[in-house]
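[agent] plan:
  1. take the single chain provided in the ticket
  2. run structure prediction with default settings
  3. attach structure tokens to the ticket
  4. add a short note for the reviewer (M.T.)
[agent] executing step 1
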Amino acid sequence: MTFNPTTPQGFPGTIGRTLAESTPYFPSHDGDGSKPNILIVLLDDVGFADFGCYGSENATPVIDSIAQRGLRFSGFHTTAMCSTTRAAIHTGRNHHSVGVGCLANFDSGYPGYRGKIAKEAGTLAEMLRPHGYRNYMVGKWHVTPLTETGPTGPFDGWPLARGFDRFYGFLDAETDQFSPEVVRDNSHVTAPGTYWTGYHLTEDLVDNAVTYLADHTAGAPNSPWFMLLAPGACHAPHQAPVPIIDRCEQYYLDGWDAARERRLANQIKLGLVPAGTELPARNDFVLPWEDVPAEQKPLFVRLMAAYAAMLEHFDENLARVIKQLEVSGQLDNTVIMVMSDNGASQEGGPWGFINAMGPFNLIPESIEEKIAKVGDIGGPDTHSNFPWGWAMAANTPLKRYKQNTHSGGIRDPFILSWPGVVKDEGGLRHNFCHAIDLAPTILDMLGLEAPSTINGIAQMPIEGTSFAPVLSNAQAIVNRGPQYFEMFGHRGLWEDGWKAVAFHQMGTPFENDKWELYNLDVDFNECNDLAEVEPERLARMIDKWWEEANKHSVLPLDDRFAPRFAENAERHTGERTNYTFWRGMGHLPSDVAPDLRSRSYTISAVIDVPKDGCEGVIISHGDLTSGYSLFIRDGHLEHDLNIGGSHQMLRSDKPITPGAHTVGVRMKRNGNEGTLTMFIDDVQVGTMTTNNIFWILISWSGLDIGLDRGTPVSNYESPFLFTGHLTKVEISLDNDQVLDFHGESRATMSRD
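[agent] step 2 finished; step 3 output follows
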């Protein structure tokens, strides 16, 4: 009998009976240096006109230098929100198609609205990995449901499970720049500094980006890499070093109307916008600058300066990444893309915010209070955002804002530098392209095909179109099909240079929406509505929108915010009303922490006080802008109910004695008021009644026991470690919660 061994399917070598009859195969773990590295810089809430090379007053020399070595696009489009654009960039597919039709904050129960990228939609990192790329993600993720961002995951939607080899950043839509919620790989960690030690998240992210690049050179110098660098800039809270804010303030003393005019003139001069383009009317409810009361103008200028400073600060730090590429000899072999995820944000409202956390909890922030705190803007005790007038200027010369499907929400700056491919360095491209086109363009230029399966899962088709031909030839034609848009019921369709678009007023019938029609080839910024001139074309495009919506899982249209948030919260928490946090527990993000909003609850802790006393935080949730903290100081138990910076203090009327104790507070909600009672064992030691309780939002910063890890919730120096013995903290929730879900949805939209 002759025995012939079987060579396993897929093994490139051969298996014989002996070593002499066999052929080994050793997969290559190193590249040959022929493939380019890829750096995508994805800014947040930056308007079309905010880079210096797009007509702005802002000093962005590093971004401008990338444009000088590459191309600027005037027709790049996104999806109007950050979660959704990120899903499109990651996958090369429409955001509804991959399950991120809206926010990563909820699952609506329909395929297009899961809040999580489907496994059938592989990410660019997953597509590049089989070809030798090492993948690094630094900064904002926000394509994982926030209820899945806790210490137990599940981690299948986190960066390391979606193709990235290393991750340092944050999972939520935003985070405090001085007290961030940072994650390394799959673990929540503490930021390596504080405001008082000179820490800022932008600098920390760039530190890690540089480290990853240096580590890569040390460990795999011949392998290509892909890095996505996604800073918090310029999403609220607008926080930046004071000297940069002071500098930026001088740019905007003449107001938003002058800034719009100046930027448009610059854009025309630069060739980004056609000659003859005029500004549209101011967006709804934006006052002419000359009508703004004189005493309010310095406030509004300072709010804009904080936003601009955040961008300039990032640009200064981006220089360190570019320098690392230069000194390591990688700059000429690195594709660099710089873009924004959507237009500038309308979430600051008509007057902006110094600390939005108060208004989110029904504590109004009057103009007088804002003016009194103007010097605090951009600091650790602020959660600032600029007013509509400045968001309008940031989007010059376009209409409306982030969240809208008019051009102010979806037409964004995009820069691409590709050494050896771009021949007309510093040139312009005016073709339509979309966030879903980036992945197929990269694959096309690398000569790669999107895989049919990833991790054994069959993949849905790529939906974007490569625009690679225009990179080396400005006259090249890209045959691209129609592109739909939808966000919160706002709708749009681009096809062959024409655009149909409808603004939707939340809560009104969709059939009442007024569709507009624009020929973008001759009407750059949607100023000449041709709906009445070409009704048949408009009707065809509306029909096409419905076809595309059906094809890409946009339906059912749903502008319900209150019920969706209510339903998601109920599904997540279920009937759980008791939480136990044992000594040694790590950090809990806000979305998986106990929900104390608008309800009665009890916080109790089992502690042991040494003979010589103790001090420190027992439990804290939040940061300097908002939250709560239970702690011992000077021998007394204290509680701070910090609603938007309003410290409502309760201190025990007697000291706590050495020994074992159960201590805590009991909140009883009575209509719009709350009565807080403090106890040591079974003895009441303090009480207070307030009409300022958590109604809509506790904090975007999370919860810890035994310390306060970020900027402190109360007036002590963090981390204020507990020096006694903490056994556990328990929180019990009553079933009397009555939430303002309309308010919650507004707050959540502002965080995206």
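[agent] step 4 note for reviewer: Residues 743-751 have pLDDT under 50 and may be disordered.
[agent] ticket updated
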